[in-house]
Amino acid sequence: MSWLFSKQVVGAVLLLVLIGLGVYVYKRSQLASPPVVTEPTIEYQIIGQSVEGRNIMAYHFGTGPTELVFIGGIHGGYEWNSVLLAYTFVDYFKAHPESVPKNITVTVIPNLNPDGMYKVVGQEGLFEANQATTSKTVLATSRFNAHQVDLNRNFDCKWQARSTWQARPVSAGTAAFSEPEAMALRDFVLANRPQAVVFWHSQANAVYASECQNGILPVTLDIMTVYATASGYPAIQSFDAYPITGDAEGWLASINIPAITVELKNHETIEWSQNLAGVKALIDYFQ
After folding, report:
1. 243 near 284, Cβ under 8 Å?
2. Torsions phi, psi of 150, nearest 5?
């Protein structure tokens, strides 16, 4: 009988030891395992395709009812730094989702003219600055889409088949919105009705307001001043270096959507700190 009792005691002790060892091993494994990190995700959509079938992407941050849209690359590889700036903002908002207030949705369309960009960097999507060609001939022709149309002359604001770029005539397409890239932006805007749109260009070193035929919208003047003051770029109400017809900003003004043009200082740099300050100030304005 005592032998049986002793055996039961030993069994109980062994069981307790095994349980304790299991708990110890489990706790050690929990301490040794790295914490699970959830990477921020990006909501995106394809809003259209270029003449050559390349996707035009829009990246969304936040879910608020007030949508602010930022667009790069309407002039393709000729203004490749505007595309690089836009992609830098995609990375920034992915890393800092808290920078978008609850009432705001930020949408970034990095590259409205992917065919023109492809001529300069030889790939789609994000690229490095040193990938851009320095050939002046290639850069000049990459301003246009694959139909050789200046997309920023293809919108429905005083549209004409022939327009101007500096001192040279350019094709504005066969009709307003004849080009798939312009149609993509038109359809996106009409579907979403953003509260403001910012276009990044280069290299006039200024922030411009927009108008078509009925003057500048009051909010357009406000956001021009807000962005210019924060970024340090000069604020200029009207672009008068040469006549422009069919511009996207003017079309937006004609449908009562405030739009501004931010012109970087040159074709090579993104002037990140200036534009980050401008974008933050614009978000604060609408918060």
Report:
1. no
2. -80, 110
pLDDT digits (tens, 9 = 90+) for 227-264: 999 999 999 999 888 899 999 999 999 999 999 999 99
The token pair that represents 127 in the structure block: 């690229």
Cα 47 to Cα 54, 106, 166, 196, distances in angstroms: 11, 15, 30, 18
Q: Which helix (H) or strand (E) holds 202?
A: strand 196-202
Residues paired with residue 60 on neighbouring β-strands, in sequence order: 43, 107
Which of helix, strand or coil describes residue 152?
helix
Q: Is the peptide bond before 203 cis (omega within 30 degrees of 0)?
A: yes
Q: Which amino acid is at 265?
A: K
Mean pLDDT lowest among 9-23, 75-89, 196-210: 9-23
Tokens 């850069």, located at residue:
139
Q: How far apart are CA 75 and CA 56, in angstroms?
A: 14
Cα torsion 122, 124, 125, 126 to 10°: value is -10
d(CA 185, CA 111): 11
Place of tokens 């050939």: 135
Task: Locate all alpha helices (DSSP H) within the chain, ordered by sequence.
Answer: 2-32, 80-95, 114-121, 136-141, 180-192, 218-231, 248-254, 272-286
Give the phi and the psi of residue 235 in degrees, each rounded to 5. -100, 125
pLDDT band at 40 (very low <50, low <70, confident <90, very high): low
| HSE (side-chain half, CA atoms, 13 Å) at 12 | 6
Q: Please tell me the distance from the alpha carbon of residue 163 to that of residue 167, in angstroms, as a whole number.
A: 10
Rounded to whole angstroms, the Cα distance separating 2 from 33 reads 47
What amino acid is encoded at 259 in this protein? A
pLDDT by residue (tens digit) across 97-139? 999 999 999 999 999 999 999 999 999 999 999 999 999 999 9
